[in-house]
């Protein structure tokens, strides 16, 4: 190519680019333009082409820039969007034309690729123009400011503009940041600096936090909507800095609204908002943690300094637990269980709880109170476990865990020895929790105490069995054994001295009969366990004495020391203090304390001091004591409390636990700590041999932290003591000895007198077996109980002794008066409930529910109290005679006398149904009161009676059915289907909420079935087939939401869905038939299959969104499509043509492989519905062969992907021939590339030719028939320079019907045209003879010859003579058209 030719070619390209800029690209031949660009680059004119394109684009963009400059500001963004879209489109077209230059010249000389070059020119000439750049930035910032003020802006336009700036950032240039982002961030910073300062000065902390949260959320949404993602992190950091970092201390410490105020006022949502915001700037959270710790410490100090709480350990620990629960809620809900806040909470509690040792002592007392009575009201093990876990939570904060252990051992020992613990299982659970916290060693003694109690029970069983046996009893009984000692019920707990707390008590002199029992037990025990020694510990013992007082009989519960004192008065009417001391040998302090408790306490003044001044409280040796002759007490069983020890005594004994409030470490704990420190020092030094002092202190502290926090001074002192002992390892040998620490004396006869028993007795005598209860005594006892029950009904229970009442009921049952007691209670309760029923009858209707609630609560409370009194009767008499338990009996009487009274029952049902009707009308009702009434009916359903169902539920369901029958009929007659569905959905939701709020859960299924029946099942066919709003109409109008609602409702009655599926299938089949019968679509296979795919997409969406991908609806969709697509074989043929169109041009516009795969998957979706898949295969092979032979396929990769999908659907055999066709084509391309045949040319006939050879006739569609026909005998007169040959023993046969030449003609057309290189005119007969093109079975010669002279756009030849006849005849003459003209360089001549 010479320079002139290159300039001419470039002018052609320049003109084409100008046409592209003018939107006249449709008249261009891009193949011709590509060839021109290819020739320029190939002949070394790449520089000319590259620079020329650069100049043309630059000139065009100057005009574009001027239009943007002259554009008004309010239209600039729209104008830029239009020009940018046009520029990108034109640059894509130019890039396609210059693709060869991009791949070769640009790469070789390291130029900027054409597309990027176009972007750079746009950046320089348009967006980078000073006036455009300034106006663009101003407009963007103004729009953002307007949006911040709450105005509406065009986000799509802003998004397009920012995307333009991002895309212009090519070749290392960040246009988005330089031209917009930096200025945007500066403007945003200035805006938020001013706004945050103004807002914090005028608003409280919570409002400021909401504003900050809103602004941060807005900025995040702004980036997501139309800014670039790279701005997200920067704008978030900016907002965090201006809204949080700058003001966080001011916010936290703001008066009356800051962090401390939020903690005080339980502002959980505000604290959560603060935490979420401040988490964005982590260092700010430290200040919140500090404030939280200060608030906790202040609240803790208030508890510690509160005189009321300090006096009461239970209140003290309850306050601590409430404080812990409060701040736990903050940490959990507000601070999202942050580890840092959990640590801060722990540190705060540790700081104020460990000021002294009171917390450890009080915690033990709290646990003691819980195990004595606090856990009684807990019905489930889960509640007990929660209560114990709360204790362990506080325990974890204690540093002086050894102090807690000391007190806990003392209190546990008392509970075990007195049998006052609510639950042994709970006790073991508590020890298990302590063990998991502090290890086995911490709880070894506590576990040993339980083991001792279990062994003691076994020993006592063996002891009693040994004396129960007649032979053993006679052998062991001594002559001196009195009858009095044999009547004593002795219970001994044998305790291991190393496990139990406290020093050993001093022995005392037992009463003779008690001494006999003790000696007998010692003999028995030591006979079984040789080598052990027993020490009696009377200070831990208890005794029950039967006392015949001068005016009444009582059972006294006293300590062992008190028992020793009182037993002396069986032999002496008067004794001096000195005599008591000599005869009992009780230590003086204990004697004085126990004696004071017997005559000082006015409620248990068993003894009196003779001839003494009333003011005189101190006891002297000569003071005389006697039994109180005027003693009276209504209680049968009296517990004589002990006088507390004096503070001096408590201190001397090492804080025994009787008192509270000491902040010092108990002396016993101090002593134990010394030993522990020495033991750890020795252990560490034995393992380390040599260690520096500071390191040793640290090691010892680390080892002991789990028990207490040792001071360095203590460690130093103990080290010095060890040094004084010359570092000898001191071992403490502890000899385990069994010791007897507790004595229980119980009389065998548990009978006690009633409140009216005032038989005079001169002194307390030893308890003996009493006489059986007579009828008179039983009536008197029952009268006492009847009076007590009456008092309970009158709410005067506070004056009653429930222990005494229990004992009376116990005695009645024990003495065979259970029937009297049971019938009597039944009658008393019935009489009371008759009065209650009358009050309910007389109550106004609007107050009846409240009155019933009050009476029902009262009745349950009284029956619980009566049940507790009659617990022994429930366990024995009721079980034995199969009676109804007391509590259930009370419910049954209430059911018969009150709720079952005809007038009450009728009024109650009417009121409840009226309330429900009112609620259905939208009125407000008292749901809590209704819930209480329903619960009452449910609870009354005892002994197989379902009161709730009989008295309410059945009537409620009938009433509801009638209501919904009328409402649904009326609503369906007046409203369209969609409104009816909404109404039904609302009503069903209301009924579900009604059951959840105040009806019983058993009603849920019934009311749901009723609603389903009345709202859906009765009317479903009417709804589905409703004209202009039914199911078919919804499908036609794409009412996805309404169909979804219908599906969800109808799913409640599955049988109704069959009708919906049937309608869907009918709609699909009808739509399919419309497509099949549409003449326009039938003519165009692409439109036909596109319509089918649209229909499939539409109903796929219904199945997915409305019918939740139901398998039944998926099957219905499949059956519907199969039914109308397989009416004939057209669908298979049209689908193949559609695929052919896609591969020729349809896939061109798809930018990604995912889009291509989606398009192919749609084809396979329709393919699955075909039954005649072999028909599709036949057409597909023909179309595939044409695409491969003509090179018209868009993508070979897509072709292979399609074949792969067909293979996965139908197997390898189905696609084996299809897979063979591309491989054959590839092989032939390699062969033909070695030698290309050249043809001479004339005037308009282009100079290249290709034919097709086939070696696999069975693979290619239609090849076999062509080989056996005339096509194999074509006389190729043109000098092709090639010949048929044998390759790999395969015969190659020319197949001209599949060939093409570069004029874009068929091979037959090429054979005809090449004749005109030899002479100017040819007759039809000569052409047939010279080319030998077949005329049978199809006249290929006539068809191809006509295409060369009939088509006006490609009229290469002309027929001489009569031009009116289109059909050629034998003598018709043809010549090359001398008038032929075309603007296109490359022309395709259609056959």
Strand content: under 5%
Fraction of residues in helix: 55-70%
The largest β sheet comes out as: 5 strands, mixed
Low-confidence stretches: 471-476, 647-661, 728-771, 1230-1294
Family: Belongs to the cullin family.
InterPro entries: Cullin (IPR045093), Cullin-like_AB (IPR059120), Cullin_homology (IPR016158), Cullin_homology_sf (IPR036317), Cullin_N (IPR001373), Cullin_neddylation_domain (IPR019559), Cullin_repeat-like_dom_sf (IPR016159), WH-like_DNA-bd_sf (IPR036388)
Organism: Durusdinium trenchii
Domain Cullin family profile: 358-599, 1130-1346
Top keywords for this entry?
1391 residues, mainly alpha, 5-stranded mixed beta sheet, 60 helices, Cullin family profile domain-containing protein, WH-like_DNA-bd_sf, Cullin_homology_sf
């Amino acid at each position: 190519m010479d320079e002139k030719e290159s300039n001419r070619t470039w002018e052609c390209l320049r003109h084409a680019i100008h046409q592209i800029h003018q939107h006249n690209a449709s008249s261009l031949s891009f193949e011709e333009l590509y060839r021109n660009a290819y020739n320029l680059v190939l002949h070394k004119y790449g520089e000319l082409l590259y620079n020329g394109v650069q100049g043309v684009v630059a000139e065009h963009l100057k005009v574009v820039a001027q239009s943007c400059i002259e554009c008004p500001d309010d239209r600039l963004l729209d104008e830029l969007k239009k020009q940018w879209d046009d520029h990108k489109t034109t640059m894509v077209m130019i890039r396609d034309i210059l693709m060869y230059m991009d791949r070769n010249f640009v790469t070789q000389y390291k130029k900027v690729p054409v597309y990027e070059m176009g972007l750079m020119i746009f950046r320089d000439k348009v967006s980078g123009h000073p006036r455009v750049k300034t106006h663009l930035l101003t407009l963007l910032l103004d729009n953002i400011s307007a949006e911040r003020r709450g105005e509406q802006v065009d986000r799509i336009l802003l998004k397009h503009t920012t995307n333009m700036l991002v895309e212009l950032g090519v070749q290392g240039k960040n246009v988005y940041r330089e031209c917009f982002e930096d200025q945007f961030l500066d403007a945003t910073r200035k805006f938020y600096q001013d706004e945050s300062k103004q807002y914090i000065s005028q608003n409280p902390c919570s409002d400021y936090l909401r504003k900050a949260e809103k602004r941060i959320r807005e900025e995040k949404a702004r980036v997501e909507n139309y800014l670039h993602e790279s701005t997200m992190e920067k704008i978030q950091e900016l907002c965090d800095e201006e809204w949080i970092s700058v003001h966080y201390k001011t916010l936290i410490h703001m008066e009356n609204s800051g962090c401390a105020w939020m903690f005080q006022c339980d502002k959980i949502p505000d604290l959560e908002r603060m935490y979420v915001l401040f988490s964005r700037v982590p260092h700010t959270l430290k200040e919140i943690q500090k404030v939280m710790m200060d608030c906790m410490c202040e609240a803790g100090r208030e508890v510690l300094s509160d005189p009321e709480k300090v006096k009461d350990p239970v209140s003290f620990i309850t306050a601590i637990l409430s404080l812990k629960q409060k701040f736990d809620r903050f940490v959990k809900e507000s601070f999202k269980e942050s580890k840092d806040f959990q640590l801060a909470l722990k540190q705060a509690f540790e700081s104020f709880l460990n000021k002294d040792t009171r917390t450890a002592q009080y915690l033990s007392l709290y646990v003691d109170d819980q195990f004595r009575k606090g856990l009684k009201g807990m019905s489930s093990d889960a509640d007990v476990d929660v209560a114990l876990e709360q204790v362990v939570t506080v325990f974890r904060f204690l540093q002086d865990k050894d102090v807690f252990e000391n007190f806990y051992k003392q209190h546990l020992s008392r509970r075990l020895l007195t049998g006052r613990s609510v639950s042994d299982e709970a006790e073991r659970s508590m020890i298990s929790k302590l063990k998991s916290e502090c290890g086995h060693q911490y709880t070894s003694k506590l576990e040993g105490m339980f083991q001792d109690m279990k062994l003691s029970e076994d020993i006592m069983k063996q002891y009693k069995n040994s004396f129960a046996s007649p032979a053993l009893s006679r052998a062991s009984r001594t002559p001196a054994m009195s009858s009095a000692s044999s009547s004593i019920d002795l219970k001994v707990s044998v305790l291991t001295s190393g496990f139990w707390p406290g020093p050993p008590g001093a022995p005392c002199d037992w009463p003779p009969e008690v001494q006999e029992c003790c000696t007998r037990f010692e003999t028995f025990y030591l006979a079984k366990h040789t080598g052990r020694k027993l020490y009696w510990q009377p200070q831990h013992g208890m005794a029950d004495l039967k006392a015949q007082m001068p005016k009444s009989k009582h059972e006294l519960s006293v300590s062992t020391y008190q028992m020793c004192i009182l037993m002396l008065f069986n032999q002496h009417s008067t004794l001096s203090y000195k005599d008591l001391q000599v005869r009992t040998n009780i230590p003086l302090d204990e004697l004085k304390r126990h004696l004071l408790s017997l005559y000082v306490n006015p409620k248990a003044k068993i003894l009196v001091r003779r001839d003494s001044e009333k003011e005189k409280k101190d006891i002297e040796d000569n003071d005389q004591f006697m039994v109180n002759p005027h003693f009276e007490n209504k209680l049968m069983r009296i517990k004589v409390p002990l006088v507390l020890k004096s503070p001096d005594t408590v201190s001397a004994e090492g804080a025994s636990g009787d008192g509270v409030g000491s902040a010092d470490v108990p002396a016993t704990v101090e002593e134990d700590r010394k030993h522990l420190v020495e033991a750890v020092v020795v252990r560490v030094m034995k393992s380390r041999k040599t260690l520096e002092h500071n390191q040793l202190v640290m090691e010892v502290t680390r080892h002991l932290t789990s028990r207490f926090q040792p001071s360095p001074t203590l460690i130093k002192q103990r080290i010095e003591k060890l040094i004084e002992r010359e570092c000898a390892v001191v071992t403490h040998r502890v000899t385990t000895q069994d010791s007897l620490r507790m004595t229980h004396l119980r009389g065998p006869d548990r009978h006690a007198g009633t409140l009216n028993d005032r038989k005079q007795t001169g002194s307390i005598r030893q308890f003996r077996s009493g006489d059986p209860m007579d009828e008179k005594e039983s009536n008197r006892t029952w009268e006492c109980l009847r009076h007590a029950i009456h008092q309970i009904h009158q709410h005067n229970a506070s004056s009653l002794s429930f222990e005494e009442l229990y004992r009376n009921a116990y005695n009645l049952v024990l003495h065979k008066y259970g029937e009297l007691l049971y019938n009597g209670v039944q009658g008393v309760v019935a009489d009371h409930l008759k009065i209650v029923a009358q009050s309910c009858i007389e109550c106004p209707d609007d107050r009846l529910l409240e009155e019933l609630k009050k009476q029902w609560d009262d009745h349950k409370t009284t029956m619980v109290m009566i049940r507790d009194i009659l617990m022994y009767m429930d366990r024995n008499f009721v079980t034995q005679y199969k009676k109804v338990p007391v509590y259930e009996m009370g419910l049954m009487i209430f059911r018969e006398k009150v709720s079952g009274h005809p007038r009450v029952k009728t009024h109650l049902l009417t009121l409840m149904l009226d309330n429900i009707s009112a609620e259905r009308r939208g009125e407000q009702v008292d749901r809590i009161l209704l819930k209480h009434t329903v619960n009452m009916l449910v609870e009354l359903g005892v002994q197989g009676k379902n009161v709730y169902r009989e008295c309410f539920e059945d009537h409620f369901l009938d009433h509801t059915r009638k209501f919904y029958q009328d409402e649904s009929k009326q609503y369906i007659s007046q409203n369209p289907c969609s409104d009816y569905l909404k109404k039904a959905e609302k009503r069903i939701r209301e009924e579900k909420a009604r059951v959840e709020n105040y009806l019983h859960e058993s009603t849920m299924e019934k009311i749901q079935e009723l609603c389903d029946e009345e709202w859906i099942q009765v009317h479903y066919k009417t709804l589905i087939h409703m004209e202009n709003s039914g199911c078919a109409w919804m499908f036609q109008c794409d009412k996805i939401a309404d169909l979804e609602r219908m599906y969800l409702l109808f799913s409640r009655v599955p049988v109704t869905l069959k009708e919906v599926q049937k309608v869907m299938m009918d709609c699909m089949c009808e739509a399919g038939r419309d497509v099949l019968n549409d003449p326009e679509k039938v003519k165009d296979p692409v439109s036909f299959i596109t319509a089918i795919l649209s229909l499939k997409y539409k109903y796929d969406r219904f199945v997915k969104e409305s019918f939740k991908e139901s398998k039944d609806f998926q099957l219905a969709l499949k059956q519907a499509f199969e039914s109308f697509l397989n009416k004939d074989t057209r669908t298979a043929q049209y689908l193949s043509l559609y695929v052919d169109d896609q591969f020729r041009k349809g896939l061109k516009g798809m930018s990604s492989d995912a889009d291509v795969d989606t398009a192919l998957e749609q084809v396979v979706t329709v393919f699955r519905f075909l039954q005649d898949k072999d028909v599709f295969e036949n057409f597909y092979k023909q179309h595939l062969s044409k695409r491969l032979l003509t090179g018209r396929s868009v993508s070979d990769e897509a072709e292979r992907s399609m074949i792969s999908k067909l293979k996965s659907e139908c197997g390898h055999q189905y696609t084996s021939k299809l897979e063979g066709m591309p491989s054959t084509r590839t092989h032939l391309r390699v062969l033909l590339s070695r030698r290309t045949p050249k043809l001479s040319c004339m005037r308009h006939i282009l100079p290249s030719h290709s034919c097709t050879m086939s070696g696999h006739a069975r693979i290619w569609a239609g090849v076999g028939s062509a080989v056996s026909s005339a096509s194999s005998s074509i006389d190729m007169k043109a000098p092709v320079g090639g010949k048929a040959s044998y390759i790999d023993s395969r015969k190659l046969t020319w197949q001209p019907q599949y060939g093409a030449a570069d004029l874009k003609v068929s091979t037959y057309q090429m054979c005809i045209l090449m004749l005109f290189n030899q002479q100017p005119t040819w007759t039809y007969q000569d052409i047939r003879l010279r080319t030998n093109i077949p005329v049978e079975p199809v006249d290929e010669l006539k068809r191809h010859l006509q295409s060369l002279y009939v088509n006006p756009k490609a009229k290469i030849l002309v027929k001489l003579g009569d031009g009116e006849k289109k059909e050629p005849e034998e003598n018709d003459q043809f010549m090359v058209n001398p008038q032929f003209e075309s603007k296109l360089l490359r022309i395709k001549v259609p056959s």
